[in-house]
Amino acid sequence: MLFPTIEFWLFFAIVFVGFWALANRPTAWKALLLVASYVFYAWWDVRFVLLLAAATIINFAGSRAIVRSRARAAALALGATVAANLALLGWFKYYGFVSINANGAFASLGLASPLPLVQVTLPVGISFFTFMGISYVVDVYRRVITPARALDFAVYLSFFPHLVAGPIVRGAELLPQLARRLRDREVDFPRAATLIVGGLFKKVVLSTFLATSIVDPVFALPGAHSGADTLLGVYAYAVQIWADFSGYTDIAIGVALLLGFRFPDNFDAPYAATSLRDFWRRWHMTLSRWLRDYLYIPLGGSRSGELLTARNLLITMVLGGLWHGAAWTFIAWGAVHGIGQVVERAVRARATVPSSLLTRGAGRLVTFHVVCLGWILFRSDSLASAGELVVGLARWNTPANLVTPTVVAAVALALLYQLAPRSISGSVTTLFARLGPVPQGALIGAGLAGITYLGPSGVPPFIYYRF
Amino acid sequence: MEARCANSSPRTIAIAGAIAALVWITLAASQIERSVSGAELGPWRDVRLAIIRPLANAHGEIAATPAPTASAPPTVARPMVVAGVQAAPKPAATPAARVPTPSDPLRVLVIGDSLAGDLGRSLGRISAAAALVSVELDYMPASGLSRPDYFDWDAALASDIARLHPEVVVVMLGGNDAQSFEANGHVVQQATAEWSAIYAKRVADLMMIGAANDRRVIWIGLPVMADPSFGELMRRQNDLYRGASNGNPRVTYLDTWALFAGPDGRYAPYLPDASGRPAPMRQADGIHLSIAGADRLAGAVKTELERAVPLLSGP
């Protein structure tokens, strides 16, 4: 059930009415959210409902074992629960990749691989709910949070707005909201409405337009296009993946808001970043925070000298790349960001030039292009295809067929939008809030009609569903 | 600055939501009607059409576009035409009668659904290396011949031919076609004799468009599928493709069933690649092709191209 479909909004209308009708009965509205979330998940593939239930039971039981055990036993319980999460993720997401590469490696040595080749279907959302499960049990172990009641935890892990593609919400952020009493008149509707309509525009209109106009053709045959087509195709992909993923997140945050829940922000004008470190504070922020708190800092972070910090950065970013998909292209993408940040730290430590408009502008330009280099790896079928595309960037002796004024304008406006003051979107929300429900509804309806006319009738799934 | 606005009650939100839905349906009735009419046949589609059609009619929009078929294909997200080796379009010539060169390569158009997308990308890659074949790709995910109201391949192919002047048309579709459709004023149930007769006629019509003016058509059969019951439906469609190709001398049917089957004749997720090592042939859905699988199919199509155009493989 995709967000930009009539099916989803009918489903949500039923959940919304039922949820608020049960607002004074906490167990009932939580049970409703749980059932609704499992129906939402079953819509993708009913077989994997059992997997979601298993992940819930494993993490809940693990958290109980942690709080009931003494120090060493608690650590063992934590280790076992984290390992169980990683085993689920490893089997469903990485077994095929590991077995085929092991097969090749053993074959080159003239040996038979001990790993049989098995095709495993990747359940949607598994990367997100296993990471949420890990963060929950670690936070319980660290005593950041107290263990939640069973129903609260089950809703926390499966809550449908974040279930299939995030944001990765921490226990400390969502569980207190599940434990509180719902009060009437507490929904920030203007913000929810602007997020949802804006998110739909980004996904249905902008992302789809750029994908079909230039990104898909350029990346499908990377060696066959002019340098101008290829360069614009890469820039357009940078905009497309931002529009697609941040559009999804905006809708998810808006939908949760309509039920009175606040999710953390996931994007903050990422292409305005002046450094790679800054980029990761603005791009998929909930994943960045997760990697920082549960991987980078436990590895030692930046406390142990330049060399160990570089190692920790590289490990974190490469594993972060691998989280996105079981392929060498994602590992290489993570490595580009890891190496980039290592170089950046070294330059910053030795830099003597004071910050200015010029240095910040140069920082933005360099960061954006390093990020684009990463996107080439991220979007390509293989490392060889990525190489072909990079070579194609130098092919300026053939005519450009895909560069059109509309594509150039869409890319340029989307990038300029990231530099615009945030007060602009805040002002739109404030103006909207001054209206009554009738003009508010009329404006939303007109916006949706515009999106329907500008967008195609068949909208591809969100890019991040596959992770 | 995050706007801190007056919060709304659920009742107010419900009112605004209902008005939004009403305004949206009213303003975008014709577009919604087109989108809904392309959905899978069934009660859910009927309910939605029953709601939306009167509204679209009230605006006279349906009268302006009587049926979302050949004359009014819906706006769709289509990764339109991927250029292979750049070649200036020229009028079609008999492909077997000329020697393709890097400056005047054989113009091949690949059309179809997402499987054609997998094939076209690989064929473009391997052909770019040889530089004697220029591949253009026009594919539309979820399309086929069952539902011309969703996407009309007759019109799309005619348009592609007029624009790109291909000498060979490679067609791969059918994975989305095992569904009922409306024809002759009623719903034609899938897997009936009537369905097969109408579908076979649509296949033959598309072949005729592709093969007109001395063009060659290579029709790619559907490969074995992971789900045996779905595979059986595809096998029956393959019989229709093969049968239709027998009636047109300029059409070659390329059987891919065995190409993706294991030694036992069943679905095989892994098969040896060019180096002889096992490689994943299919995506996890058991339908689409992996990169190695698409390369395997593209190799078979290239061999067929060389058979169809003898001078392609050299003097």
Structure description:
The complex is a heterodimer of chains A (467) and B (315). In chain A, 72% of the residues lie in helices and 0% in strands. With 467 residues, chain A is mostly helical. Chain A has two domains: 6-179, no CATH class; 189-454, no CATH class. Chain B has a six-stranded mixed sheet, sandwiched between helices. In chain B, helix 7 crosses helix 8 (228-246). Chain B folds into two domains: 10-64, no CATH class; 82-313, SGNH hydrolase (Rossmann fold). The model of chain B is unreliable at 1-5, 61-77 and 80-93 (pLDDT under 50). Chain B starts with 9 loop residues before the first helix and ends in a 7-residue tail after the last helix. With 315 residues, chain B is an alpha/beta fold. In chain B, strand 9 (270-272) and strand 10 form a beta hairpin. The chains are: A mainly alpha (467), B alpha/beta (315).
In short:
The complex is a heterodimer of chains A (467) and B (315). By secondary structure, chain A is an all-alpha fold. Helices cover 72% and strands 0% of the residues of chain A.
Low-pLDDT stretches of chain A are: none
Structural class of chain B: alpha/beta
**If interface size is counted as residues with C-beta under 8 Å from the partner's C-beta, which chains form the largest one?**
A-B, 70 and 67 residues
Number of helices of chain A: 19
Shape of chain A: globular
Overall 3D shape of chain B: globular
Which structural class is indicated by helix and strand composition of chain A?
mainly alpha
* Annotated CATH topology of the largest domain in chain B: Rossmann fold
Distance between the termini of chain B: 71 Å
Please identify, by name, the CATH architecture of the largest domain in chain B: 3-Layer(aba) Sandwich
> Count the helices of chain B. How many?
9
How are the strands of the biggest sheet of chain B laid out side by side?
1-3-2-4-7-8
The main β sheet of chain B shows up as: 6 strands, mixed
- Give the total of domains of chain A: 2
- Oligomeric status of the shown chains? heterodimer
Question: Over the alpha carbons, how many angstroms does the gyration radius of chain B reach?
Answer: 23 Å
Helix content estimate of chain A: over 70%
N-to-C SSE string of chain A, H for helix and E for strand: HHHHHHHHHHHHHHHHHHH
What are the secondary-structure elements of chain B, in order, as H or E? HHHHEEHEHEEEHEHEEEH
Work out the number of β strands of chain A: 0
